Amino acid sequence: MSATAVNVHADDHAHDHGHHHKETFITKYIFSQDHKMISKQYLITGLIMGVIGITMSLLFRMQIAWPGESFGIFEVLLGKWAPDGIMDPNIYLALVTIHGTIMVFFVLTQGLSGTFSNLLIPLQIGARDMASGFMNMLSYWMFFLSSVIMVISLFAEAGPAAAGWTIYPPLSALPQAMGGSGLGMTLWLVSMAIFIASSLLGSLNYVVTVINLRTKGMSMTRLPLTIWAFFVTAIIGIVSFPVLLSAALLLIMDRSFGTSFFLSDIFIQGEVLHYQGGSPVLFEHLFWFLGHPEVYIVLLPALGITSEVIATNSRKPIFGYRAMVASILAIAFLSTIVWGHHMFISGMNPFLGSVFTFTTLLIAIPSAVKAFNYITTLWKGNLQMNPAMLFSIGLVSTFITGGLTGIILGDSALDINVHDTYFVVAHFHLVMGISALYGMFAGIYHWFPKMFGKMMNKNLGYVHFWITAICAYGVFFPMHFVGMAGVPRRYYTNTNFPMFDDLTDIQVVMTVFALIAGAAQLIFAWNFIHSIFYGKKATQNPWKSNTLEWTTPVEHIHGNWPGAIPEVHRWAYDYSKTNENGDYVIPGQDFVPQTVPLQENEEEMNH
Amino acid sequence: MTALLTIIVLILVAIAIWQMTKMFELSQVKADNSQVANDKDNRLNGYLMFAFLIFIYLLTIFSFWKWGNVVLGTPASEHGSDYDNLMFISMALIFFVQIITQALLHYFAFKYHGKKGQKALFYADNDKLEFIWTIIPVITLAGLILYGLYTWTNLMDINDEDDPIVIELYAQQFNWKARYAGQDNVLGEANVRLIEIDKNNVIGIDESDPYGKDDVVSQSELHLPVNRKVIFKMRSQDVLHSAYMPHFRAQMNCVPGMITQFSFTPTVTTQEMRADQGIQDKVKHINELRADRRANGEDAEPWEFDYILLCNKICGSSHYNMQMKIVVEEEDEFNAWMEQQKTFGEEMAAAN
Ligand code: HEM
Ligand SMILES: [Cu+2]
Ligand SMILES: [Cu+2]
After folding, report:
1. Closest-CA residue of chain A to B279
2. Confidence tier at B11 by pLDDT (50, 70, 90)
């Protein structure tokens, strides 16, 4: 089979490593083609973008809680957009827009998936590196470039893009409609186009690597669930990101070359524009054809990480491996046919609404299966409460809380009155934002020893988790009530509606929780940086895990394994497996790494 | 003042964090320093998991107790009670599932926290169990889907039965206008290319279309006769907007280049709604808050309840203040109001 052939080749390859090509600082740390280094580059870039994104959310949350109040910090950070420390409505919208863009794309797509796909795909399938190290490097640097452009766009004279992260035209197409739709939006589009190219290069690489470079014995059904998740995520990305690219290109044409793909019959600032025959609804279709799969692009890697972390730390196999794989595949397929649930009241044909309601509620089923399987995995385990484990349990909790309200939003009839209110904001933050963020934290705490050869401080990890967990609910649970009261999102202030006056105290409560949550991330930042330099040195397999990455040496080497690539003999979840007589398969050890051959009269799991 | 409060809160939090780190550190016997969870960590975090479950429950109860009354109250339209009913059923289901699954999750996390020598159960599969928890959501969701689609289809079936009144909602940055179809109940043709601001043809009605002559444009308030079905035709002249009438459980986007529609029957007049117990409590509470603010020198007039039309699709810098008052009144009051309005034909005659 091809996997074996490739493996032989990979072995040859290994022999001529180590002796020659001296690496310079530049090839090692900057233009590195080594997947482990690239993964660190992704992580650090993603975290820096995360700091920007979260800070923005704190700023606009302060405005919502204390509308029109003057804050010195506004003046410092926003400059001319906060004269006398009072936030301007335009910059409010810009902050919301860039916060959303950064969190979804830069932190939780490339920051999460880029980091862990790069780190784990070669290490867990037993490959020396990605299929194409060069493409991989290119993918990172394009991501870096798009991040830089996005940050530069914040300084556009007339303001950064401010039409919401969904950039619906005509608002995003017409500089007359809002300042941010001038240069700011141009930069946004350029940045996103590069981002998409980066994501495609990365995804193609992941898919090819998983298909071709698995080590001997690593059949698809022996892959850890992390790899299944990254693999399927990459496929969804390949299917849906090009559609966003086409939407962006058509929008660029409308903006700069006078075409009318999305525009028609517009009278603005005392003037009729020439556009005729286009439709903003078409843009919504194109956007959400990516936009919905995007939430799974964000979420699946987090769920994959969680599966791995929960199994390892429960000292139990993940419950229902096949059902987990099946639900990843089902979610992937269904996620491409539910986009219309964002458009029930867009003016789209109501019959389509019915179809999308149907497919949307269908997707609840594999999601429910996943949640039940996680819970069952905990049952009768021997739970090792490492910080990564806490974040994984936290993920299951927020995934359930946020997922359940999806039943309301996915129902076209019920969506009518909560669409675009804070109910939606609460829903997607819990199910996507917070859950994926927890997945990312779980991944960082769990694989930090693999990435940096050091351990993170667990006590700081515990404090970080518990404060974050409480605050996440403190921010987003009460937010449902705000939505049910009918408060629209993307409002600079609610003071023009006396009917919302009784919500002031909820708004303050949410903002205080948000500020505390933000402060708690400083603990993480400190722990992260401090541990890189002064952390305790990691052992080879600190969490007593079965997967292949823990068979590599702590010190990173090019090619991952000093000798031959290990062969795989079993799936990744033989934790606490016992023989007939009740003893562990390997006496005195509650885990059986994938590299251990089946023992005499041991039965392999049926998959 | 608030800045000071924030600083104090932040300082307190910093102290709390410091104390918590201490707590976790103290809980470790002569720190083994491996940075891998030991039995003490497992136990402490296990208990905290249980505490967290209680926290989620308490937060839920507290939120309902404290904020349960801020949500929209009595629906003011015919389909509104159906809507609320469906919402109630879905919510009840959600809470049921939420309470149980969170309990299982956190209880297991507490119950099975790791101990030296404890053996985990090797339990990898159970087809029957998995079948059960696949089929239960399937059945429940099937029920919800059917009910939801039934409601949706009824609502979206916009037809001329029951003699509806036709009204155009016209959106622009950043205000609303309403155009009534007049005696003939047919809206005249209109297009943004026909707008003539100096002639006061602000929404581009075609002067040559006879149907347009008797149309009436209201720029300040939207009046609706009670118990008469309304068909709204939405139009926008610049960017996307969304006509959101939360009290009527009604919303539809306004799309430039396209006419969208929504239809409902208002069933409660503004006067009646002001007498509604829930609304009275709300108004009383809000007016107390406003009185406090007035006492602080802010400009916060006492508030009287009114239905409101909001814009609910981001549309630019003043998106947050794009609103129009809705008045639902008895048929004769409505007719009297209508009498006072100038028709489009009259306006054009005056301008020429
Ligand atoms: C401290 C944490 C966070 C807080 C307090 C926060 C708060 C908010 C709020 C209040 C809004 C709604 C603003 C509005 O519609 O008027 C918002 C928008 C958004 N947030 Fe967050 N958020 C946080 C973290 C995240 C994370 C982790 C994600 C990752 C997915 C995220 C993604 C988004 C997106 C996509 C939007 C929509 C932007 C738009 O409307 O264009 N946020 N955030
Ligand atoms: Cu979606
Ligand atoms: Cu608007």
Report:
1. A499
2. confident
Strand partners, B166: B231
Structure tokens at A374: 């996680």
- Ligand 3 centre to CA of B88 (Å) is 30
Closest partner CB to B123 (pick from A272, A380, A535): A380
Q: What are the tokens at A574?
A: 């033989």
Contact B9 A516 (CB under 8 A): yes
According to DSSP, the residues that pair with B234 across neighbouring strands are B169, B260
A4 bridge partner residues: none
Nearest residue on chain B to A279, alpha-carbon basis? B257
Please report the pLDDT score of residue B12 as a whole number. Answer: 78
Residue B223: Cβ within 10 Å count: 22
What are the backbone dihedrals phi and psi of residue B134, each rounded to the nearest 5 degrees, phi first?
-90, -40
For residue A139, the CA-to-ligand 3 centroid distance in Å is: 39
Q: How far apart are CA A346 and CA A490, in angstroms?
A: 17
Whether domain A292-538 has CATH 1.20.210.10: the reply is yes
Contact of B242 with B319, CB cutoff 8 Å? no
Structure tokens at B252: 């539809």
The whole-number pLDDT of residue A41 equals 95
Alpha-carbon distance of A542 to A512, in angstroms, equals 37
Distances (CA, A) of A182 to A156, A189, A248, B339: 9, 11, 15, 46
Give the span between the Cα atoms of B123 and A316, in whole angstroms: 7
- Considering only CA atoms, which residue is closest to atom 27 of ligand 1? A433
CA distance B289 to B283: 10
| Gyration radius from chain B CA atoms | 29
A99 alpha carbon to ligand 1 midpoint, in Å? 6
CA distance A88 to B351: 39
Contacts of A487 (CB under 8 A, 6+ apart): A421, A422, A494, A500, A503
Supply A53's token pair. 């994104």
Distance CA A120, CA A124 (A): 5
For A44, residues 6+ apart whose C-beta sits below 8 A from its C-beta are none
- The predicted-structure confidence for B318-347, as pLDDT tens digits, reads as follows 999 999 999 999 999 999 999 999 999 888
Nearest Cα residue to A299 out of A370, A246, A194, A384? A370
Cβ separation B86–A90 shorter than 8 A: no
Which among A338, A312, A493, A473 has a CA at the least distance from the CA of A392?
A312
| Residue pLDDT, tens place only, B79-128 | 999 999 999 999 999 999 999 999 999 999 999 999 888 888 888 888 89
DSSP B214: T
Cα–Cα distance, A354 to B302 (Å, whole number)? 44
User: Under a CB-based contact definition with an 8 Å cutoff, are residues B244 and B232 in contact?
Assistant: no
Q: What is the CATH number of domain B165-351?
A: 2.60.40.420
For residue B226, what are its two tokens? 């009670």
What is the spatial distance between Cα A296 and Cα A331, in angstroms, rounded to a whole number?
8
- Average pLDDT, integer, range A100-114: 95
With CA atoms as reference, report the closest residue to A298 among A410, A407, A439.
A439
Please list the alpha-helical segments (H only) found in chain B: 2-26, 39-67, 80-111, 127-156, 210-213, 270-275, 277-295, 331-340, 344-351
Model confidence pLDDT, tens digit, residues A359-400? 998 898 999 999 999 999 999 999 999 999 999 999 999 999
How many Å apart are CA A301 and CA A440, to the nearest integer? 9
Q: Distance from CA of residue A515 to its chain's centroid?
A: 22
CA B136 to chain centre: 30
Asked whether the predicted pLDDT for residue A2 surpasses 70, the reply is no
In chain B, count H helices and then E strands: 9, 10
| Backbone torsions φ then ψ of A346, nearest 5 degrees | -85, -5
Closest ligand, as measured to the CA of B320: 3
Q: Which of B37, B86, B253 sits opposite A386 (nearest CB)?
A: B37
